């Protein structure tokens, strides 16, 4: 089939109707990436394990989904894209039920791996199917729907997870997937169809070596990123060894993919300028998005005293801002230059990051809501147009492979971004603590005045020795709070700067020509 013929394919059903099962499935998968975060302490209690051990519930899911994402093109050729999409939803739904009834950590990790295998293919397939159903000049509207999944689902996840865990119990965060999954399967079977280039092919060969190298690379890298900070990074021998193997497996993987004819992924899409630079921008953006989703609840719960549900609720203005922007882009976004939208969005992201740099321990909720609202606007304004731009010059036949590769790299960007900010908070807190401790001496008038004031307060209830001890202990706790506060401010500043740094890459991307009416 020629390139021209593939570009002329159109679905027989209304694309907006076809999007219903696609968006539901994608929303369900993305939601499960964050919904379990707030439930980890409850799972740890149920399984009688430590909080640190319970994080394998998250890690196993990310590793499994990461392995499947770049393999979607192969499985689509093996089974047909529609069949593989439906199979993925069924596996995800069944494994969600098994997660809910898990009674031990090993069983939960195994079922989460199965859930990751099922859900990993959903997002790239949803992206590629959605992009193919519209011509290039009309993709802004379709990407508005996809943007709701990518941007809003991770924000709703902690809120919904906190509410369900608090009012019901943690297994229900998995049970809610079952009715949605059944509905998706029924609708997908009726509405989705395979274009000629996405149907089942004969004599499809499995790139076994590439698949195992991919498993080794992602497993080693994800473990290092998740556990490295707790082990003092390269101060630990096992971190050094796993890093070495991750680099080795990654190098061998990309070499084999570039040389083999029947490779797991087709790296030729990186020859496309839009795809190459657009993917880099999305990697950084996903890193900023997931990093901010990881550290802002930590700040609210650890320093401001919010519980899991309230900290998730404080993040909701980001979802409101994103929703408003998505409707705006969906209605008139096709009339505006996508590159301009992305640049404005990155500027707003950076501005919101700098606003968060001014946080302190006496802020009101509105001081969290406003930068979150602006960040939601910026993220939606960036994410939707950049996906459209990055795939604008690809053929329809390239979409499935390109979506798989792009989503793999975006996942890696999110994992790396989260790991970087976690390390920054830990190291910056130590640096601020070292600076503040130097000023906590009797030679500092401010310190002595505050110490004497606290001693006078405590001496009304206890003897002088205990009053002095309690005063010093209170000042030390305040110092730790201020050190951690400074670390969070520094980390938000890094996120803001990262958004500014990638702006020049936007001008290296070719714009989409608007057709005259």
Explain the overall architecture.
This protein is mainly alpha-helical and 517 residues long. The chain has 3 domains: 1-202, MFS general substrate transporter like domains (Growth Hormone, Chain: A); 206-261; 268-517, MFS general substrate transporter like domains (Growth Hormone, Chain: A, Up-down Bundle), CATH 1.20.1250.20. It contains 23 helices and no strands. It has helices at 3-7, 15-34, 40-47, 51-54, 56-68, 72-79, 81-100, 105-120, 122-132, 139-167, 172-175, 177-191, 208-227, 237-259, 273-302, 308-314, 316-332, 338-356, 366-391, 399-437, 445-458, 464-501, 503-506. Helix 15 (273-302) packs antiparallel against helix 22. The chain starts with a helix and ends in an 11-residue tail after the last helix. Residues 1-7 have low confidence and may be disordered.
Short descriptors:
517 residues, mainly alpha, Growth Hormone, Chain: A, 3 domains, 23 helices, 75% helix, globular, disordered N terminus
| Number of discrete helical segments | 23
The tally of strands reads: 0
Distance between the termini: 31 Å
CATH superfamily of the largest domain: MFS general substrate transporter like domains
The count of domains is 3
Global structural class: mainly alpha
Dominant shape: globular
Mean pLDDT: 82
Q: CATH topology of the largest domain, what is it called?
A: Growth Hormone, Chain: A
Question: Unreliable stretches, pLDDT < 50, 5 or more residues?
Answer: 1-7
The CATH class of the largest domain: Mainly Alpha
Helix content: over 70%
